[in-house]
């Protein structure tokens, strides 16, 4: 709730009527406190940080040669093979030199990758939203860069989450564990101080959203992507679990990762068939009675693949997955293309016409709308393979990365007003206005007294509205607790019923069971 703004001239006039500079200073302090909450935080302009990582060829790929060469830390040279039919169709792309924020060659480590995106994560600790993307062909190291082999192995083998110390001691750990380490190190440095972290994990599989943190009984429920009153998108019903340590984060991560859709392909024995979004929500006290609530989205996109690499024997289920993946990635590319185009000019009046961005054409782009639209700092890790066998896919990734680096973002701190702070300021202002009423009454200035009374009435109404809001929040919390208890009781009752049914079946005489089976035949 926002209190009405006082005209500056009125407050200054009241200070003069009271006959003292202290009252004017108090009025200025009240105005500054109120304005700090009413005015939106300033935006910070930035471009997308684009990092290209090159996977070295496997032994069976080495005889086919390489199509990429790292020039330096920012430039990469792409050279297509003259024998390639696709290269002949795209002769203009025979030699292409690309420039990015960072090019990581085949010898780059996981630590090198982390250093390139760490500044974006630091922005999230300062109250801004941050998004980390991975984009590239299947089998080029996207999930390896995100998680690292230790966490991937634990999830694939169904093992429990490793200890945070073991993960921290692994040089091959990916971006996700390094982000988790940094966030909790930041929390430890604050000594708590009212800050907290929550984790959510979802996948987009064949254009449907699924909550990866739900138990098996509800894992198949499809979630809906919606918009709030301010135009921001959210996933309705998505689990957001509070975590207090890195170990808890890893437990949720491995549980969710093991629920994802995978399939063996020609490029990867464990190829993800869905896009996944792991989100850390960081809440911390801000200035002027406000709360900062920023998010770090870690997006591992499924790999783009070509139909002609599978032949006519592709399974029907695999074909549906491939179609859905390529379609969503195509829409993502179309959104990036639209966002980087200059607005058209109306022929009628010469005014700029906003470019249509097709967010609604895919569930993935609906979820990532806020990140793509600009209210976030974004780092995009694009992965390619240097082998000439995949030069067409490599060229597609390079073109996408080139478009992405032209995106311009306008991020602002995510701050919300604390109702308690608003109420405290309102009460202070009421006390101050009452003192002015008393002094104005002595001076006989009835006109000012009437204006002050009106302001006092409005502030009283605001205080009442804040009290009502607090009561509503308390009632909602009680309803949520009742619902949780009811669900727990229902689950226990169902378990008891199943146990009784099982005992009844075991108690049947063997002869009766045999006779029943014979009769059934």
The largest β sheet comes out as:
11 strands, mixed
Our Rg estimate from Cα atoms comes to 30 Å
Briefly note the structural class of the backbone: alpha+beta
In the residues, how many domains can be counted? 2
Strand content: 15-25%
CATH topology of the largest domain: Kinesin
Text of the CATH class of the largest domain: Alpha Beta
CATH superfamily of the largest domain: Kinesin motor domain
Q: Give the CATH architecture of the largest domain.
A: 3-Layer(aba) Sandwich
Question: Which regions contain 5 or more consecutive residues with pLDDT less than 50?
Answer: 1-20, 512-521
Helix content: 40-55%
Number of helices: 16
> Would you report the number of β strands?
22
| Shape descriptor | globular
Measured distance between first and last alpha carbons: 72 Å
Q: Mean pLDDT, nearest integer?
A: 81
Keywords:
alpha+beta, Kinesin, 2 domains, 11-stranded mixed β-sheet, 47% helix, disordered N terminus, ATP binding, microtubule binding, motor protein, ATP-binding
